[in-house]
Structures are given as C-alpha cells and as structure tokens.
Amino acid sequence: MNDLRTEALVVREVPKVPEAIRAVARAQDDTRDVVLRVDELRKRYGENEVVRGLTFEIRRGDCFGLLGPNGAGKTTTLRCCLGLIDPDGGTIEMVGQPVPKAAREARIRVGVVPQMDNLDPDFTVTENLRIYGGYFGLPRSVVDARIPRLLEFAGLASKGSVGIRTLSGGMKRRLTLARALINDPELLILDEPTTGLDPQARHLIWDGLRQLLAQGKTILLTTHFMDEAERLASRLAVIDHGAMIASDTPRGLLTQHVEPEVVEVYGDEAKKWADVHGRRLSSRLEIAGETAFCYASDAQPLLADLATRAGVRYLHRPANLEDLFIKLTGRELRD
Amino acid sequence: MTFTAKLWALPLVSPRFLPVWRRNLLVWKKLAIASVLGNIADPLLYMLALGYGIGSLIGEVGGMSYIAFIGTGMVCQSAMFTASFEGMYSAFSRMHVQRTWEAIINAPISIDDVMVAEWIWAATKAVMSTAAILVVIMALGYGHTWLVVWILPLGFVVGLTFGAAGLVMNALAPSYDFFTYFFTLVLTPMLLLSGVFFPVEQMPPVLAAVAEFLPLKHAIDIARPLMLGRVPSDLLLHVIVLIFYAAGAFYVALVLTRRRLLK
After folding, report:
1. Which residues lie below 8 Å from residue B236, measured CB to CB, with a gap of 6+?
2. How many angstroms separate the CA atoms of A239 and A43, rounded?
3. pLDDT for B32
4. Cβ partners under 8 Å of residue A306, min gap 6
5. Considering only CB atoms, which chain A residues are within 8 Å of B106?
6. Omega of the bond prior to A98 within 30 degrees of 0, cis?
7. Contact B100 A82 (CB under 8 A)
8. Which residues of B touch A118 (CB under 8 A)?
9. 3-state secondary structure at position A16
10. Which of these, B251, B246, B254, B263, lies nearest to B111 by C-alpha position?
11. Whole-angstrom Cα Rg for chain B
C-alpha cells in the first residue's frame, strides 16, 4: 500500500494555494482581447431549457475548456456560437462579429473540429483539405501552399494521396484537426476531440493542440475527459443543466471547490470502516460503488487510522479535476 | 428574426454555393463512367427493346417512328429519375450518412447555399443523362435538327423539378427505405400517365385530365415537337408549370431541411 501511495504523490504534486491565487489575479487584469464573448445565452427546446443564462469569455491565446456531463448543453452552446442555431436570449460575439447576425463573417475566421468525423470519404487526404479550403473561398494557390505544412502537422505527410477509408481513427481525427486549420483560424472550436480514440492517438492530438497554443492560437474545447482538460485548458468552466456552476483556472477551481487530498478506500470492510471512522476523519466522504472517497485538507489522521485496519485497501492522492467534476455535477449516471 | 420567421424565409442565395456544387462534380468525375451507365442504361434498354419490339408492330405514333417517340419520352424520364435519385439517395448520403453537409455549414456556407448547390447539382446530372440519351437517339438517325439542342435546358428544368421533389423526401427521410414511397407513389404513376410510352390522348378522359397536372407530361409536350424540329405549342404554359413545381418543391424542401438541421 505504501508503494502505491508514494508513487501517487511523486507523480502529481498537491496544488499550492499561492500559485492558484496568482493565476486568478493574472486572469483578472488581463488586457488580451476577447475572441469569444457569450453573455446570458439561453436556448430552449419546447419546455426544456437546455442553456440557461450562460456567460463566459475567451481571451486570445487561451485554451478554454467547457466541461459538463452528457446533456449539459455543451454542444448546443457551440452550435449557437457558430450561428447554426439561434439562441432564445443573450448575445454572442465571436472574433469581433455579432452572432447569429454576422455568423458567416465570424465563421470565416474560425475552425471547427466536430464531435463526429465528417471527412469526405470520396476524396484523398489532400483533396479533403483542398476542397474544404474552397468552402472558405480561399484561392487554390493559398490552400495548396498551406497543405504540406498541415499534413506535416497532422503526421500525415506520407498519406497525402491516400483515401480516407484506409485511415485509422486517430489519423482521421488528426486530419479533421488539420482541416479546421485550413483557413488559419483565430479561434479553434473542438467538440470532444478525442472521444473514441485510444490513449496513443489521444496523446498525439493533445501534442498537436499544445503546439497550436504555443503558436498563440485560441481554443475552445468541450470535453468530459478530466485529464484532457487538465493537460490543455488554461481556463475552465463547468456547466450542468445549461448553467455555469464554476469557472476559473484549473488550479483555482481545485483550491476553491475541493479539499486538496483524497484517500480512496476499498476492500471488503471499506463501507463499514467509512461509516464508523471515515466520516469522522474526513471533511467530506462519498461512497461510489465499493469505494469510499475521503476528502481532507490533511490526510494524515486518515492514513494513520487506515494503517491499523485489516480488510481495507487504500490509495492516497492529490485531488484532481475528476473529484471537482463529480463534486459539482454529482455521481448519478447521465444518458 | 424569430426562429419561425427564419424557417419560412425565402432562400438566401450567395455565390458560396459554387464550391459545394463543385465538390459534387469532383466526386462524380471519380465515378463518372459507372454513374452515367447507371443513369442511362435503364432508359436505353427500354427505348431499344420497346422501340424496336413494339415499334415493329405499330409503326408511327404521333407523327414519328415509335422508337423516336419512346426515345423522347425516355430523355425526359431519365432526367426525372436521375434528379430524383440525386435529391434522395445521394443527398441523404451527404446529409445524414457521411455528415458532409455538417462539415460544410461549419465553414462560412449556409444551409441555404448547400441546398441550392444540391438542387443545381441534381439538375446538372439530369442534363448529363439527357445528353447521353440524346446522343444515342441521334446516332440511330433521329432528331437531326438544331432545335434538339433545346432539350438540354429542358432536361435542366426537369432536373430542378424532380431534384427539388427528391430533396423534399430527403428532408423527411429517416432512412433510405423511405424513398421507395416516392418511386411507388409518385414516379411510377408519373411515368405511366405522362405519355412516355403512349400518347396521353389514348387514356380515358379522367386520366388524361389528371395528366395535365403532371410535370413530366409538360416536359414531354416540349420535347416531342423539338425532336421533330418544330417549336412546341403552348411552350410558355409548359415551362411555367415546370418552374412552378420546381420552385414550390424547392421552397418546401428548404423549409423542411432547415427544420431538420438547424435546431
């Protein structure tokens, strides 16, 4: 058990409060221009209001992560921003253009990676990029000049003349990402970009996105993968039932909402232990399935007690976004 | 503008539909031979088999040899089927199965542009199959008159009419199977009642009256005189009927498609 514990502590550091406070302060007196501003956005389908007064803004160079369980309103929000559906209330300004009024003008300077692949199966890799560039009204010479760099970026330099049907899932996603860059967009919108990919393919996408951020691109990302948000996003918003429940830097969110340390307790006696001792020793305790999650600002009393117990196993780790997400949106299953 | 007003708005057309039309053309070029064969094989077989088979029994019909008579019908029929097919099966692949439209409307292209592109594309394909069958008819020694060239724009208008009708079906379709209704309930009766195989005047008066409302009948009324080198009588009326159906069906298709995709 001790091995596990030290390993967990080495891998991730417990967040330090001063750093998080500095990050919040930095965000507040930010002078970078706003690339996307969403104010009091509302969208209703019949009786069901799926977006309920959502407000956020994304500044140039940021990677803004929109987190939420299935059905939280993430995709609806993105569709409103792109001007594909009209909101019932609120205002949107994207790359300086009012949406939906000037949605077309806005979309000229935005790139989109949709949730589901929609590459053109009748074309090769290069043709997919070229034809998509045509949709932006870009001259063929401009598009053709960009294609080699984009293929390089997507790791598909040797696949230019290959048909889409022969590509792996990861390759298709990378090509979709490259396609979203064909118009050299100011803002890149990604709707769950790594859903359905294996871990290797996900890391390649993340590497690509980090490169883009290093070049100063602005990214809006929806995801329900906390590791994805943790790795990429500089600002996060957690939404549920169409409303914002928290927004800050990743570290800021953690320090605000979750106790810094977690002890996960499992094994035959875990539930009994949790009821008798766990609740007393943690500031908050949740049971999910066979595991008790004990949250505390100092886990030492918990660990000292657990060391004396038989029939329980445990893992001590720093709190992460998953804990935050579960705390804010609950443990019940969403369909 | 409210959502309802936007739903019912007239099409907002921009030149941005052109790259979408061009995309379809580029795909077609990859599969051109199979595609042309698919579109014209059926009508050609009917034309040759019925034209020579029945034609040898009955001689002239409506002032022309039966093979030229049925050939002209087949030109219009193939424009009708080609455009319907494109508006239904091909559009459905692009809209629903491949999500191509979804990719396109994320670029600065509106759903109206996509619909216009699909509509014009269906009519473009109708012209291609019209031309292919015309070439065969002329190779057989019929229709050697300059007026025949006007059958190409006629094919385009027929393509607009049935391409739009196909797009209405596309907007409503849950799956490919749905399109069978259109073939069984609309296209087949249209084919039999519009004077493709025999003159409309041969039918009982009630059916002949019904035929007056069918766009394919009006297309054939334009095509047959052209084939004989004559300017069609009541040309304006026939053109107006075709354009009325084309514009009406396209508007319905557009409203239904907006309702389906933009919510």
Report:
1. none
2. 14
3. 84
4. A263, A265, A273, A312, A314
5. 82, 84, 107, 112, 114
6. no
7. no
8. 98-100, 102-103
9. coil
10. B254
11. 19
Instruction: State the average pLDDT over residues B65-75.
Output: 93
Give pLDDT tens digits for B164-223.
Answer: 999 999 999 999 999 999 999 999 999 999 999 999 998 999 999 999 999 999 999 999
Count Cα atoms within 13 angstroms, Cβ side, for B193: 18
Indicate the SS3 state at residue B55: helix
Give pLDDT tens digits along chain A (335 positions). 344 433 333 334 444 445 555 555 555 567 789 999 999 999 999 889 999 999 999 999 999 999 988 888 999 999 999 999 999 999 999 999 999 999 999 999 999 999 999 999 999 999 999 999 999 999 999 999 999 999 999 999 999 999 999 999 999 999 999 999 999 999 999 999 998 899 999 999 999 999 999 999 999 999 888 888 988 999 999 999 999 999 999 989 988 999 999 999 998 888 889 999 999 999 999 888 889 999 999 999 999 999 998 889 999 999 988 888 888 888 776 66
Q: Give dist(CA B216, CA A239) in Å, integer.
A: 55
Among A79, A84, A116, most B C-beta atoms within 10 A, so best to mutate, is A84
Residue A219 near residue A64 (C-beta atoms within 8 A): yes
Tell me the backbone φ, ψ of residue B60, rounded to 5 degrees.
-85, 145
Q: Which residue of B has its CA nearest to A76?
A: B263
Nearest CA in chain B to A104: B108
Q: What residue type is A48 in one-letter code?
A: N
User: 3-state DSSP call for residue A306?
Assistant: helix
**Could you say which DSSP state residue B9 is in?**
S
Cβ contacts of B3 on chain A, cutoff 8 Å: 86
Hey, what are B75's tokens?
């030109």
Q: pTM here? A: 0.90
CA angle A260-A264-A266, nearest 5°? 170
CA dihedral of residues B92, B96, B98, B102 (deg, nearest 10): 110
**Of residues A82, A148, A70, the one with CA closest to residue A112:** A82
For the record, the structure tokens of A75 come out as: 């995709």
Residue contacts between A and B (CB atoms, under 8 Å): 63
Q: CB distance from A262 to chain B under 8 Å?
A: no
Which residue shows structure tokens 């928290």?
A: A246
Looking at the complex, does the CB of residue A44 fall below 8 Å from at least one CB of chain B?
Answer: no
User: In this predicted structure, what is the pLDDT of residue A5?
Assistant: 39
Report chain B residues whose CB lies below 8 A from the CB of A108: 108
Q: How many CB atoms lie within 10 A of CB A125?
A: 29
**B98: chain A residues, CB-CB within 8 Å:** 118, 120-121
Tokens 């941005």 appear where?
B16
Question: Residue holding tokens 């943790």?
Answer: A230
Structure tokens at B152: 């190409």
How close does chain B come to A250, measured CA to CA in Å?
29
Mean pLDDT value across residues B142-157: 95
Cross-strand partners of A211 = none
Residue B128 backbone dihedrals phi, psi, to 5 degrees: -60, -45
